[in-house]
Structure formats: structure tokens, C-alpha cells
Design goal:
Number of strands: 8
Strand content: over 45%
Organism: Robertkochia marina
Radius of gyration: 14 Å
CATH class: Alpha Beta
CATH architecture: Roll
Number of domains: 1
Helix content: 10-25%
Order of helices and strands: HHEEHEEEEEE
Oligomer: single chain
Number of helices: 3
Distance between the termini: 22 Å
Protein name: Nuclear transport factor 2 family protein
Structural class: alpha+beta
Pfam family, one: DUF4440
CATH topology: Nuclear Transport Factor 2, Chain: A
């Protein structure tokens, strides 16, 4: 699921990204704070990420723990490549994604993004 979501993120496939987010999304970012509006997250991604930044997973860093009757928690590390600054790459940072298993498929329910 991580790979599928971030393929959409890196290629600016906003429709696929929108489908991944749960309607009750909570996105905690250590620089910008909490966002609970799915449309605002998508708009911010489109304006600030598309064509400017891409994400690269630190191979072997993902841990997934099932949460019975709910979904799973994914913890890992990733870096971001800033294409506006000659492809500069950030230091790896931690992230947590809480996935909810819904009748419509796995949805991103909570995100903690630390840089």
C-alpha cells in the first residue's frame, strides 16, 4: 500500500491520492501542525509537492503491525528529493501511517510526518 500511495504522490496522481485518504484523516506534521481536512491536504500537496518534491523510501525501514479489527500501523523512514534545488535530498526522517481496513479498501486514517 505504501508503494501504491507514494507512486501516486510522486507522479501527482491526485485522484489516486484522494482515494487513499479516509474522510476522517488526521495529518500531523512537525512543521505545519495538524490538518484534518482531506481537501486541504490534497490542495497543499498539489501546490507544494507536485513537480517540486518526490519521496524515496529508505529500503528495509518499514515495519507494519496489524491492529486486529481495525487495520495496521506502518512505521518507516523516508527522504524527500527537492527538484527545485537541483535534486537535493533530505536526511531520512521518520513517519507513521495508521491504515484503516474499510469496506472500500485500505485507507490512510492517521499520518505523523517528522522531518
Amino acid at each position: 500500500m505504501d508503494r501504491l500511495y507514494f507512486e501516486a504522490y510522486n507522479t501527482c496522481d491526485m485522484e489516486t491520492q484522494a482515494d487513499f485518504y479516509h474522510e476522517e484523516i488526521e495529518f500531523y506534521h512537525d512543521h505545519t501542525g495538524l490538518t484534518t481536512d482531506k481537501a486541504a491536504i490534497l490542495k497543499s500537496t498539489e501546490e507544494n509537492i507536485c513537480g517540486k518534491v518526490s519521496r524515496e523510501l529508505l529500503e528495509g525501514s518499514i515495519e507494519v503491525t496489524p491492529i486486529p479489527g481495525f487495520g495496521a500501523v506502518e512505521i518507516g523512514k523516508h527522504s524527500f528529493i527537492n527538484h527545485m534545488e537541483g535534486g537535493s535530498k533530505s536526511e531520512p526522517s521518520k513517519f507513521v501511517i495508521v491504515w484503516k481496513d474499510t469496506p472500500d479498501g485500505w485507507k490512510i486514517y492517521r499520518v505523523i510526518s517528522l522531518h
